[in-house]
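Record 1 of the preview.
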Amino acid sequence: RVIDDTGHMTEQAGTAYAGLDRHTAREQVVADLREQGLLRHLEKYTHNVGRCYRCSTDIEPLVSKQWFVATKDLARAAIEAVRSGYTRFFPEHWLTHYYDWMENIRDWCISRQIWWGHRIPAWTCGDCGELIVFREDPGACPVCGGDNLAQDEDVLDTWFSSALWPFSTLGWPRDSQDLRTFYPTSVLVTGFDIIFFWVARMMMMGIHFQERIPFEHVYIHALVRDEEGQKMSKSKGNVIDPVEVIEEYGADALRFTLSILAAMGRDVKLSKPRIEGYRHFINKIWNAARFALMNLEEPVPEVDLSTVRSFSHRYILQEMERIKQEVAEALEAYRFNEAAQELYQFLWHTYCDWYLEMIKPELYSGDDARRGEAQACLHQSFTELLVLLHPFVPFVTQELWSHFPGIKEENLARVPYPQMRPECRNEELPAWMDFLQQVVVSVRNVRSELELNPGRKLTLLARMDGERAAFLEQNRQVVCDLARLQELTIDPELTSPEAAASNVVDGCELFVPLEGVVDFRAEVERLDKQLAKVDKDLSGSEKKLANEDFVNKAPADVVDKERQRRDELRQKRDKLSSLRDKLVSC
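->
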C-alpha cells in the first residue's frame, strides 16, 4: 500500500515521497520526471474518479481486510422458496430481477468502516494474536487465557442488520410470543431498487435462522419522481418536501395522490398541481358529509334496505355493492391505484353529483316514511363509504366518522370491511340510471350551448312509450329537479315544435322548446362571431402544421400539442356550426 488511511504516501512509495499528501506526491512525481528528462508531454483526459457524496473528496481505492458471508447456499434456498411459490412478487415481472441477482450472487462483504452500527463480534488477542468470533463477549482468550482482547473496530453492513429485521424486532434470538405470532409476516412493501439489497437478504437470513420464509408476498411499489419523471435529488433541486406539502395541502391529499397515481409497475410523477387537484376531492368528502349530517339525527331510522321503494335508493344500494366488491378485489391484488380511482369516481360523480341531488326532495318532504327511508339509506351508504375511504384518507374520514349518529365503534380503523348485501344487487338498475342521466344531460347541454341562465326553467317534451315512459313518469320529480324543468310532457303521439332543440336518447325523442326562451337573431350573431374567431385560430394552426420546418425542427411535444389544438378547434367549429344551423332552421 503506497497510500495510508490519512491520504499520505507510505514508506513503500519511496523515501522521496513518504509522508507527502497524495495530491502533492503526484505533482512531485511529474516534476521529478521532467527534471530527469523522462517526460515527453502532458495530456489531459477524462477519467472516472469516485468522489465522496458528502465532502466531494476524491476516493482512493485501498486494499484492506474485510469480513465476508458465503452466500451461495443461502441464495439457493431463497431462490427455491420463490420458485416453489412460498413467496410471491407483485408485479411478477420483478422476479426476473430477483433471480438475476441471486443466481449470480457473490460473497457478501459485511464489514464497514463507519462510526455507527452493530460492532463485528470478533476479537483479537493482544498476547498470542488469536482471532476470536463469539456470540457473547469473551472474557479471556481461549488459546492462551490472556485478557488483552481488542474488538474489531468495523461495524456490520447496514443491509446485514436490516436483513435480520423480520425476526430481530420480535425478540429473536429468544423464542418470544411475538416471534411465534408475527413471523412470518404477510406482506413486505418496498421499492424495486432494493430488491437485492434488502428483499433478497431478508429471504436468505429468514430461511437460515428461522427455517421459514420471512414474508408471503412482496409488493414492489412505484418510485416517486418529479413531474418530468426524473428521480428527485437535492443537487437537481427537484425535491418535493412531504412536510411542506402536508402543511399546504394536508396529509390526506398527499396520501390519496400517491395512492391513485401508484399504478403497479410504473413510477409516480408527482407535482404540486396534482396534489392540489386531489385536495378538492378531500373537500368533496367533507362537504358531502356535512350535507349528510345536516339531514340525519339520533336515532337513525331502521329500514329493511332490501325493501326500499325509491329508485334513487335502490340504485345507490346496488352501486354500493358493486363498489365494495371492486375495491375489495383491487386491494386483494395490490392494485391500490385502481381502488382509489374507483372510490374517486364513485363518490364524486355517482354519489355527490347524482344521488345526493336526487334524494333532496325526499329529505325535505313532509312525508315521514319517505324521509325515514332516505335517512336510512343515506346513513348506511355514507358510513360504508367512510370505511372504504379510510385506508386512503385516514384523518378526514376518522374526524367525520366521530360525528355520525348511531356509531358504536369510535375507532374507524377497527371497523370491519362492510358486509355484502346480495339482496340489494340488481344489475338492471345501472342501465335505467344511465337513461335518466342522458335525459337530464340533454337538457343541461341545451342550457350550456345557448348560454342560458342556470336558473331559467325549461320545458321538456318526451316522445316515448312503454317501459321508458313509465320509468320517466315514476321519476318525474327527480328529472324536473335535476334538469330544472317547469314542465315535463311524456306522450308517444306528441308533435315536435318548430323551434326546438332535439335529441334522441335510447330511441326516445326529446324536445326542448326554444320559442320565447332564445332570441334567435341575437344568438345566430353571437355564434357567427365565435365561428369567425375559431376559423381564424384554426387557419393559423393548420398553416403552422403545414410548414415542414416547424414539423421537422420543433420539439416533438410542441408539435403534438399543436396537433391536439388543431383537432380541438375542428371539433369546436363543428359543434358551433351544427348549433347555428339548428337555430337558423327554427
